[in-house]
Every structure is written in C-alpha cells, then in structure tokens.
Amino acid sequence: MKFNRLTLIIGLFAVAVSQSLRASGELDINLSDDSVRVRYGQDLPSGSQGQKQYGVGVLYNTDDNTMVDLWFQITDEAGSKAPGLDLSVGPKAYFGSTKTQEYLAFALGGALIYRPLDANRMLLTAEGYIAPNIVTFLDANNLWEVNLRLGYEVLPTAVVYISYRQIRANFERVENEEVVDRGGQLGLDLRF
To answer: pTM to 2 decimals?
Structure first.
C-alpha cells in the first residue's frame, strides 16, 4: 500500500514539473539522513503587487511518513522601513500519511525572508503554517509546520542552505501529537 502511494506521489510531482518547465520557477531539494523533500514552484505573471507563485512538494522520511503539499503565495517587500525584509503569505494544502494515520489539512501562513544589507548574499528565512481543527480532515485534528533556514547565494540563481523543519499533527486515534517530520537538513534552492 505504501509503495503505491509513494509511486503516485512521485508520478504527480513529475507531471507537475514536466508541465511547468517552460516558465520561470524554483526547484528546492533538501536532504537529511532521515528525510527528503522536493518542492517545485512556478511563478505567475505579476504586476506591481508582488511576486505570485504556486507549487507542489513531496516529502518522504524513514518513519514511512509521506506528504504532498500544494501552495499559493504572494511575496513582496515588507515596507520601506525594513530594507531587505520580504514577506510571503498564502494558503497551503497538505495530504499525507504516517504508519497508521492519514491526514488532509488546509493551512494559512507565510514566511519572513531577510537579506542583510551588509551581507547581501546571506538569506535568513522563518516560515510557518497552521491548520486548525475546522480545516483538518481524515484522522487529524490539526497540523502545523515551522521551517527556519540560513542560506548563502552561491550564484544569482542558486542558494545553498541549512535548515530546521518540524511538522506535527494531532490525530484523533492517538492521544499525543505525531511528528510527521523533524530535524535539520542541507538543501539547494535553484531559480530558473
């Protein structure tokens, strides 16, 4: 059963990426000893109101947790009083499974992206999403995700980074929260 889900997830991700390679986008791959996450985002035509992007991601770890996330976000400068600080906001949908549970969740959240002016090749990112009980389905009652990232721009279109990620869900049949994924990663974020 798990093999079929993983095959479906990889197939959906491959179709999404192959259909989108003609436009500008972003490919983000991060790895640890226990997990891999691949995300692809495609830019939408934008006017003067920020950069718009939608995308899909796939996560798999050694605890047999699989997850697909779909998102839409708008990113723009936080304001003239905070040079180097961008804000990204939007919805995100999660579908996944642990060894014994499945979940579907619709979250809201965003990210703060800071590029220090005196070290303009460095990037600091803090990202968070939350899905309360009212928009969480199947076996889960709620879900949240937090990502912290420190990156260095090795090329104008490539950032290497280290990050810490935690994704947790509160399940109906389990008294305690379940860790979907947690730990540090090494990643590469490519823009094209």
So the answer is: 0.84
